[in-house]
Amino acid sequence: MKKCSDKVVPSLALLSVMTVFGLTFIAIKVALLDLGPYTLAFVRFTIATVALLLVEKFQPSGVGLKALPLARLGLMGLLGVTLFFSLQNLGLTYTTASSASLILSSIPAITAIISYLVLGEPVSRARAASIAVSILGVALIILGGSGGSLLLGGSMMGDLLIFVCAFFWACYTVISRNLTSRLPYLTVTLVSTAFGTLFLLPLSAYEYTVSGPTHLSPPTIVALLFLGVVASALAFLLYNFAVSRVEAGEATTYVNLSPLVTVCAANLILHESLSLLQVVGGIIVLSSLYLASRWD
Asked: How is residue 217 annotated by DSSP?
């Protein structure tokens, strides 16, 4: 019974995280109407850092800074916060929320490769085949968003930026898995998020000097609170808790729920639509992930 419970709790945490992550694309599109991509990322994770500090105050980990691998936590912050979310926001200024979420479904495939190379986690033949099929699906999504053109412009630029983000998140997941197996996940989340926010400061400051101050509408304020508290502080805590109890490759299998949430919400709220090629690519990516999880 205990073994079953040990699997159920992380699974529920991952399901919750991926549902929230699916809705973040909608909130980002709303916030980008008033804020630049780097400023949005900085404000979002400033809110997240404050929220995590409050959690730490009421539930201290008791781990001192001297006992922490600050260089690796800084790398986590750079990859999983600074680079991932600044480029994701930038990519979403060019492409749709639905397309971005479908492309990020390639994260499990990329994570499986990195986990094999870094952590020695096994990759079965079925999973190896799913990786190849998943990348094919992503290629169709990108081509479908650009109208089948190979020219680097419009939505294709945004789609490629999102694909680069997938690599950064996969790296973040592998490093997180390695650290949360021996450190409190709250400490890992707080310190890495604080580092990532600090690294975002110069990018946000530069954007401010170029664009100047902006007016925040009520929908943007609501989106920022959702992104900062729910989608960053709470979701990152749950994610790092989950990956401390399951393999990195298994954790990212749940990523295939996120695009389903995004596509439905984007259609209802943003009135987005997908091209036939993107639909086919999305089905290929999600199907490859499902089959790999069943065959492994």
From this structure: P
Neighbouring residues of 245: CB distance < 8 A, sequence distance ≥ 6: 6, 9, 10
Tokens representing 13? Answer: 């945490």
What pLDDT is attached to residue 1? 45
- 3 state SS for 65-76: HHHCCHHHHHHH
Q: How many angstroms separate the CA atoms of 108 and 252, rounded?
A: 5
- Taking CA atoms, 239 is separated from 188, 234, 251, 268, in Å, by 11, 9, 8, 27
**Angle between the N-to-C axes of helices 37-58 and 218-225, in degrees from 0 to 180, rounded to the nearest 10:** 50
Using only the alpha carbons of the chain, give its radius of gyration.
Answer: 18
Asked if the model's pLDDT at residue 5 lies above 70, the reply is: no
pLDDT at 154: 57
Which token pair is 134?
């998943």
Residue type (1 letter), 235: A
- Say how far apart CA 74 and CA 69 lie, in whole Å: 9
- Look up residue 206 and give its two tokens: 């530069």
